Amino acid sequence: MMGETVGNYHITAKLGEGGMGEVYRAHDPRLNRDVAIKFSKDQFSERFEREARAVAALNHPNICQLYDVGPNYLVMEYVDGEPPKGPLPLETALNYARQIADGLEAAHEKGITHRDLKPANIKIKPDGKVKVLDFGLALLNRDREGADDSTLTMGATQAGTILGTPAYMSPEQARGKAVDKRADIWAFGVVLYEMLTGQRPFQGEDVAETLAAVINKEPSWERVPAKVQRLLKRCLEKDPHKRLRDITGVGLLLEEAPQQGMALRHRGLPWVLAGALAVALAAALILLWPQPVERPLMRFSADLGPDAVAGPVITAAISPDGRRLAFVARGASGRAQLATQLLSQPKATLLAGTENASAPFFSPDRQWIGFFADGKMKKISVEGGAAVTLCDAPASRGAAWGEDGYIIASLSAGLGIGLSRVSAAGGTPQTLTKPGEKAEASHRWPQILPGGQTVLFTGNAPSGNYEDARIEVLSLKTGQWKAVLSGGYFGRYLLSGHLVYTHGGTLFAVPFDPDKLEVRGSPAPLLEDVAVNPLLGIGQFDFSSNGTFVYLSGTSLQGWPVVWLDGSGKTQSLLAKPGQYYTPRLSPDGSRLALAVGSGGSDIFVYDPQREAMTRLTFTTQDNLLPVWTPDGRHIAFRFRLGGGFGIGWVRADGAGEPQKLLESKNDVRTFSFSPDGRRLSYFETNPQTGNDLWTLPMDLSDGDHPKPGKPELFLRTRFDELQPVFSPDGRWIAYTSDASGTTEVYVQPFPGPGGKWQISTSGGLYPVWPRNGGELFYESVDNHIMVTDYIVKGDSFLPGKPRLWSQRQIFDSGSVHMDAAPDGKRVVVFQAPETAENKGNVHVTVLLNFFDELRRRVPRGK
User: Fold this and answer.
1) Average pLDDT, the chain
2) N or C: which end of the chain has fewer CB within 10 A?
């Protein structure tokens, strides 16, 4: 952005960033003056432009002038100054207060209410001149247009918004009611109180407590000089009808306070009555507070700062009491670390010893944060200290911490991986579910339901499409599980009595009976701006037990390009047009790329970079995946799913001819490589009793386009999961992955055997790939980096070297095989992470207060 020209303005520096957009300093060469430009994240509506131009008509020495309006930006006067910071000397504070009041008076006379007056929106210039900034939340007097001024409520696609900053909101704003210029008078009183005392009159440990203080509590008046107590009490009157009605009254109320006796005679009874009414009102609010209808939905944006990372899983977790966020941020070294931040505080604290952290989750007592790093599940105190390793977790897909001192987790991302139970003090995980027993691919994203005896989780269909997934419940007493809802993922039970989940990029809610473990009624759409990752089956949201809901805004991933990546981290475009691509496989000469394309059902395509053309090879859209080239580059084998079964298909790579079936099975099969002579095809098959086993399929290629498959031959079967078998370039070895050690690692064994077994990876590994020139073996680490191992062969021994990082660049996780190596091993083909708003600038999450109450209103539970 810096150095660019927008309209007639040349950008020179960035000034700041907030929930509504970014602010830059710019130069206007026409008038030879500096300006400030605020860029919105969205295009302005016609109505906003009309209102902004009305604000631009304001011309007052105490108001930062609005010069111009663009399609998504405002051009304002550049003010060189600092916000007021108390405590200030009485006369200084009153001088600033008079200037603020003068500016507000000018705006109110034009029918404009600021609605977000606070010290951050006030600048004191070096000469003592005060400027009121940022009428971005200004509300024109809608009575002039005959419009309604009521606060919006949450519709089917967007939550309602309470505009403003909690500590400076008037009580009517905090309750979500209509506001007028008297809300500015309240905020003026809060700002003046803070300038005089150095403290805010209404404080709380979190947003909910702050708003409750605004509604229920009185400021500490003993800190306020007697001269201004009368003014402040009139400004901070909770009932807007009793509040100072016009900012012009500020000057009159700044007269010397009358003698104490006179004050008691003339104002004693009204103030006693007002105090009694305040007590009565507070008592009434306390009695009414538990009733959902009395608590409006309130929404604000929490800025996690420029170092926060919008990850592919949970960006921000919230503590059970709704006071603290945990998220991932970049530390001084550039590595990811856990950070925590109280919602009532402006800055986060990094937790040392949590490098490479991801997917944080809280303990029920709020004292610990669980997370995953370096192939392990760990925990650390919210106050910091040493991180404690709990167990191996090669590629976790979620965890939940129970009241009984155990954690339920999905510890790996491999096919057939279920849920495990591990002590929160650390230990060996106990397997709870085996997805293959019910023809499912994986179990992930667990939530322990109230009572601690039932676990809610996502059960993925073998299709790999999470839009077709099931929300399921597991009984910890019986070990049995069942589906409670189909066609969604990342289900979460809320104490409002609802099950929420995502489907098609939308958050839905349906009443749920936690005793009978069944849904009641029909799902209703709630939000369409919650970021989701359908590749991993997760929604980017979390919630507390008191009804605070936090989420990352965004949209469902629509596609990603394909690029070449070299060891230095440089990329070069290969397939620039973004798409939902999976399982890339280079032809033997590296000139063409086979891949699966599509979501909710995929087909096999071949891309020719020379012609920039895609050739479609299959047309069933029944989850065709994992293309494997024959050594001569003329044909492709692939895995298909048809009806309730699976199999291996065969098709010409140039698109001529019809696909043929080589193998059918009731169990899921996954193709991985041909032997160099093309007479063996390696694959693995899911077995309900033994997990995933490695097989090879003999091939008779004497008939050209019509191969004759032989009888499948078992290569490796154990009580563990063996996956992803690939032949070495000379055909003497097969590399594969196994969880025999408790962590998914890469191994090599001779083919057809017998012989030894060599472990290649040392800290978790997936998707082994042999470059065709030999001498190296690539694989993917659990944190999505490419690793490489040199090797030599002596007789019947395979001698691997020490694994090393091939590139510092993290690769994009598309939910399946992510890479293939060029024949010379000098570069690889990978998917490039899509550019989204979430990975640019400061990361913001949206916080909804009283979300459970809104759910009860929106989606009634009935009887």
Assistant:
1) 83
2) C
Q: Fill in the DSSP letter of residue 9.
A: E
Own/partner contacts of 80-83, CB < 8 Å, gap of 24 or more, are 80/123, 80/125, 80/126, 81/123, 81/124, 81/125, 81/126, 81/131, 82/123, 82/124, 83/119, 83/120, 83/122, 83/123, 83/124
Q: Residues of 177-195 as b/e, b for ≥16 C-beta within 10 angstroms? A: bebbbbbbbbbbbbbbbbb
Kind and range of the H or E element at 690? none
410-435 residues labelled b (16+ CB within 10 A) or e (exposed): bbbbbbbbbbbbbebeeeebeebbbb
- DSSP calls for 729-759: TTSSEEEEEE-TTSS-EEEEEESS-----EE
* Tokens encoding 362: 């809280």
Six-digit token pair at 386? 């040493």
- CB 399, CB 407: distance < 8 Å: yes
Beta bridge partner(s), residue 671: 683
Tabulate helix, strand, coil % of the chain (nearest 5): 15, 40, 45
In the chain the first and final C-alpha atoms are separated, in Å, by 56
By residue count, the chain amounts to 863
Q: Could you give the count of Cα atoms lying within 13 Å of 542 in the half-sphere of its Cβ? A: 26
Query: What value does the mean pLDDT take over residues 423-430?
Result: 93
Q: Please answer whether residues 856 and 559 qualify as being in contact, where contact means their C-beta atoms are separated by less than 8 angstroms.
A: no
pLDDT at 154 over 50: no
| 467-491 pLDDT, tens digit each | 778 999 999 999 999 999 998 999 9
The pLDDT of 618-647, averaged and rounded, is 85
Burial class (CB in 10 A: 0-12, 13-18, 19+), 490: buried
**Whole-structure pTM value:** 0.56
* Helix residue spans in 128-258 (DSSP H): 171-174, 181-197, 207-216, 226-235, 250-253
DSSP structure class, residue 308: B
pLDDT at 68: 82
For residue 168, report the phi and psi dihedrals to the nearest 5 degrees. -115, 5
Check residue 197 and report its DSSP letter. Answer: H
In three-state form (DSSP H/G/I as H, E/B as E, the rest C), the secondary structure along 211-238 is HHHHHHCCCCHHHCCHHHHHHHHHHCCC
In sequence order, which residues have a C-beta less than 8 Å from that of residue 807 and are 6 or more positions away?
565, 566, 567, 568, 569, 785, 786
pLDDT in tens, 532-578: 887 788 899 999 998 999 998 876 556 789 999 999 889 999 998 88
Q: Which residues contact 50 (CB under 8 A, 6 or more apart)?
A: none
816 is written with which tokens? 């399946």
Q: Compute the distance between CA of residue 407 and CA of residue 415 in angstroms, rounded to an integer.
A: 21
Q: How far apart are CA 740 and CA 32, in angstroms?
A: 71
Cα distances (angstroms) measured from residue 159 to each of 153, 502, 675, 719, 795: 7, 16, 56, 49, 68
151: Cβ–Cβ under 8 A, 6 or more apart, which residues? 160, 161, 162, 176, 177, 178, 296
What pLDDT score was predicted for residue 274?
Answer: 37
Longest dimension (CA), the chain: 114
Structure tokens that stand for 229 in this block: 């107590």
Distance (Å) of CA 561 to CA 424, 574, 587, 784, 832:
41, 8, 19, 17, 6
Residue 631 half-sphere exposure, CB side, CA atoms within 13 Å?
16
Q: Which positions ≥6 away from 145 have C-beta within 8 Å?
A: none
Among candidate residues 267, 757, 288, 854, the one with its CA nearest the CA of residue 548: 854
E-strand ranges in 478-609 read 481-486, 489-494, 498-503, 506-513, 518-519, 524-527, 532-533, 538-539, 541-543, 549-551, 560-566, 571-579, 581-586, 593-597, 603-608
**Residue of 651, 550, 557 lying closest to 604 (CA atoms):** 651
| Angle, alpha carbons 395-543-432 (nearest 5°) | 40
Distance CA 239, CA 242 (A): 5
